[in-house]
Design brief:
Helices cover about 25% and strands about 35% of the residues. It is built from three helices and eight strands, in the order βαβββαβαβββ. It has helices at about 15-30, 90-105, 120-125; strands spanning about 5-10, 50-55, 55-65, 75-80, 110-115, 130, 135, 140-145. Strands 1, 2, 3, 4, 5, 6, 7 and 8 form an eight-stranded mixed beta sheet that branches. The protein starts with a strand and ends with a strand.
């Protein structure tokens, strides 16, 4: 089974899509990772939203930012795959699509991410390299990584 991807600006998201995206992000980043943090950060309006669906269900998602909106370079963040779908290697499909979308939508190939430290190898397999020491973001170890 293959994901269907759509890229949308904030004002193009339906209410149902927005609800599902926020529900998925909360399910994983707040509940599963047991991390109390402000997910709704005022940046969704600036982002491109890459949504991966099976049928009507959103199971994968990322935000993509143009240079200057989050980092100096273009960036990808809030990378999330629904727990029930993680055994299908959808994270790679999602990130490859996000990298393609960063090029096609923003004409950018230099990408910065703030990666959870335990996912370092995952991102290295996608061409990212570590560019910072470990730091805590919402009490979770992160590293900055870049891809050119």
């Amino acid at each position: 089974m293959k994901l269907t991807f759509q890229i949308k600006r904030f004002n193009e998201l339906s209410l149902s899509e927005l609800y599902q995206v926020l529900q998925l992000r909360s399910e994983v980043f707040v509940v599963e990772q047991n991390c109390v943090y402000q997910d709704i950060d005022g940046k969704d309006q600036k982002a491109l939203h890459l949504i991966g669906t099976f049928g009507d269900e959103i199971v994968a998602y990322v935000r993509i930012f143009k240079p200057g909106d989050y980092f100096e370079e273009a960036s990808i963040g809030r990378v999330v795959v629904k727990q029930s779908h993680r055994d299908k290697k959808l994270g790679y499909d999602l990130m490859q699509e996000a990298i393609r979308a960063t090029k096609s939508e923003l004409n950018e190939t230099n990408i910065t991410i703030s990666a959870q430290l335990y996912l370092k190898k995952f991102y290295e397999n996608l061409g990212f390299i570590q560019t910072s020491e470990m730091y805590l973001e919402d009490d979770i170890p992160h590293i900055q990584m870049k891809r050119s």
